[in-house]
Amino acid sequence: MAPLPPQTTDRMKSLTYVLAGLFFVLVLIEKSLGFSGQAVTKNWSKEGFKNIGNHIGKKGLTNNPDPFGSNEWEDDLAWEEEALEDAVAIQSSTKSTKQSIDDGFSIPEITLPEDRFPESGKQIKDQAGYLSIYFLKFYGQGKNSQSQLVKVTRQFNGGDPIHFILNQLAIGPNLEEKSKGVLNSLPRRLKFDTNYKLEEGILHISFSKELEIGGSPEILKDRLDQLCYSFVGNFGIKGVVLYIGSSRLRTLGGDGMTLPDVLVRNPRKVILF
After folding, report:
1. Angle at which helices 217-231 and 161-171 cross, to 10°
2. pLDDT category, 156, cuts 50, 70, 90?
């Protein structure tokens, strides 16, 4: 009977081929990932498994525990500064290009004719008599207080009634009226341009900037009512348009209260003094 062939040798050869193949595959994986086994072996006990990824491609990082003292750290900072400068340069060049494009189609800022103080218009002359001037008086206390218009009369000696009314509004209530609680919502430093215009029943008046400064929205509304009630309904005046200098007043106060195109009398109670 013939002896059996040795099986141990064949098994060893097969195992050798398998191990060689696995080793070859591991070498290929290492080369493709750029993985350095030396760094891992050298620092395995210090960093632990969770820090393996931090050693990939960073030679010498473990040699210098202080990253601020290494040259690689300084190179990284310099690269970030260069990248930032490039980004700013690109942004500025884009902005300049856009500006050059928009310049050909930009609309110049202009003041519309209706926003400028009218160049033409008549002024008024009237005979002597009595004219009505409107001030304020508050009723109630605290949050329940409300303002009411107070109608007073002033003796007019003739001439320009618009100038006269504006002067009386600037002077304010007399001593007797003040003793009865009559007040003025117009600022003391308020000035007006004597060169008003009356055009098609609309009175155009220019004031100083103090007209829109100070006071709550309620006080600003009282301020407008004082002006409108003192002018509208007299001398053929149907409405009032206000200006600050030569620019038409579209909003009033810090809250930007929008004004109508033409101010008229706002319905409210009036007290006769």
Report:
1. 150
2. very high
Q: Is residue 157 part of a domain?
A: yes
Tokens read off for 14: 């097969």
Question: What's the whole-model pTM score?
Answer: 0.57
**Sheet of 129-139, strand order:** 182-183, 129-139, 146-156, 270-272
- What is the rounded distance in angstroms from the CA atom of residue 18 to the CA atom of residue 44? 28
Under a CB-based contact definition with an 8 Å cutoff, are residues 135 and 182 in contact? yes
Q: How many domains does the chain have?
A: 1
Residue at 268 is within a domain: yes
Angle formed at CA 156 by CA 150 and CA 162, multiple of 5 degrees = 75
Confidence band of 20 (pLDDT split at 50, 70, 90): confident
177 within a domain of the structure (yes/no): yes
In a domain, 264, yes or no: yes
Q: Looking at the DSSP assignment, which residues form a beta bridge with residue 251? A: 258
Nearest to 265 by CA among 235, 238, 243, 236: 238
- Domain hosting 175: range is 115-272
> How far, in whole angstroms, is CA 250 from its chain's centroid?
19
